[in-house]
């Protein structure tokens, strides 16, 4: 018996995290969600990736500050940045989780159907311990901004996984 009653064990859930640059928030969410999924024994049920709206950092490792703050919490944040492709990513992924309203506006504006648009979700909607409408960009901030982004991401990814598993 599948202990995760909302999860279809015959399906692989393909999820994509998107932020502006794909070097701070979305690669962190990607690493956090991958660890939660692995710890739940659900590695084979999820395919997780991240992408950026802009192409400035394509091919680069995440921002060293996010890597360092993540490392302190036991995450290896080592995704190589890639740019979001509406043409390829909308059909491929089941759901796309964005970090803030600007991300939401830009990504939804590139959807070609209501079905594609409905795949775009705000990661902050899955927060359970924090109250925040967005995961703010820490790029121009200090260490506390990276810690806060990770606090929100850990909270929301936990809520997101529970939404999938129903437990
Ligand atoms: P992210 O942060 O969207 O969380 O990856 C940013 C990283 C880089 C830039 C903007 C936001 N940038 O303008 O280069």
Provide an overview of this structure.
Strand 1 (13-19), helix 1 and strand 2 (46-52) form a beta-alpha-beta unit. This protein has helices at 25-39, 64-72, 86-92, 101-109, 114-117, 143-165; strands at 13-19, 46-52, 95-98, 120-122. Helix 1 (25-39) crosses helix 6 (143-165) and helix 2 (64-72) packs across helix 6 (143-165). Helix content is 40%, strand content 13%. By secondary structure, the protein is α/β, with parallel strands linked by helices. The longest helix is centred in the C-terminal third of the chain and has 23 residues, at 143-165. Strands 2-1-3-4 form a four-stranded parallel sheet, with helices on both faces. Residues 19-25, 52, 56, 137, 139 line the site of 4-nitrophenyl phosphate.
Q: What portion of the residues fall into strands of 2 or more residues?
A: 5-15%
What is the strand tally?
4
Question: What is the N-to-C order of secondary-structure elements (H for helix, E for strand)?
Answer: EHEHHEHHEH
Principal-axis shape equals globular
